Amino acid sequence: MNINKSDELNLRNPGRGRSYPRENLGACVIFVEDMINKCGESADYGVLQKAMGVQKRSAVFEKKFSSSRQFGLIEFNKKRVHATTLAKSIIYPASDIDRANALIKAFKLPALYQEIIGKYNKVILPSTLANILYVDFHVAENAKDDAATIFIESAKYSAVLDKDNRLVVELKTLAGEVVKEIDKINIQGDLPERDATSTMRIYKGEVVQEEGQHFKLKFSNGQYAQIFIPDGFTKKDINKLLHQIDVLKFDLDEED
To answer: Total structural domains in the chain?
Structure first.
């Protein structure tokens, strides 16, 4: 998500130095879910304020609104507010793992957080994080404690802090393993190989045989992805697959 200079000025709290989320990620998710429940996925800014029961210049509302933009949960265009695909992946996930990964993607979006992650990923966060934000990351002195607290709260909400307070910002698979990042998918390359086959899986301690279709897709780096679609899948299941592809596209767009 790219934030231009005019947007950054709107997101910055005057007198507090560089921009940073002024509400934690959990509060922003609740804010956007509340917006969808009351106004739908898109609403006029003034209508949204009225639906939320706030005055035109509510500091609490503005903090949640600007922070939700930094986390990529809403977009603001021509006086209309739109819930993003990323927000809907969190609020209406196809699976628990989809929600977990969407939260991590949202956590990685604010520019300040990208810099902190770049320095401290897989490292125990220092107890002096607030001072470091002031000295190294140019957060205003009178905002450093607030910024550090919100960062830690957001990290905990997106489950990227382990029991030792180590920052681990990596996507997870269903088995809880790290997803290996793919630089580019070869969209114009060879068509995926496809055949009817069967596979076995362990379910409640028993070996279960499943019939279906097997796809083998070659990536530009020479590696392969393998997908097994069991018989009996529906149009709804296809939509879930398409949704997962959209999530992957969002991740690649973020890296570009």
So the answer is: 2
Considering only CA atoms, which of 246, 250, 241 is closest in space to residue 213? Answer: 241
Q: Tell whether 181 is covered by a domain.
A: no
Residue 18 reports pLDDT greater than 70: yes
Long-range contacts of 53-59 (CB under 8 A, 24+ apart): none
pLDDT at residue 78, as a whole number: 84
- What is the mean pLDDT of the segment spanning 176-199? 41
Gap between the Cα atoms of 40 and 33, Å rounded: 9
Structure tokens at 247: 């999530």
pLDDT at position 118 over 70: yes
Q: Are residues 90 and 198 in the same domain?
A: no
Note whether 140 and 232 are same-domain residues.
no
pLDDT for 184 equals: 35
Res 255: pLDDT = 56
Tell me the average pLDDT across 178-196.
Answer: 41
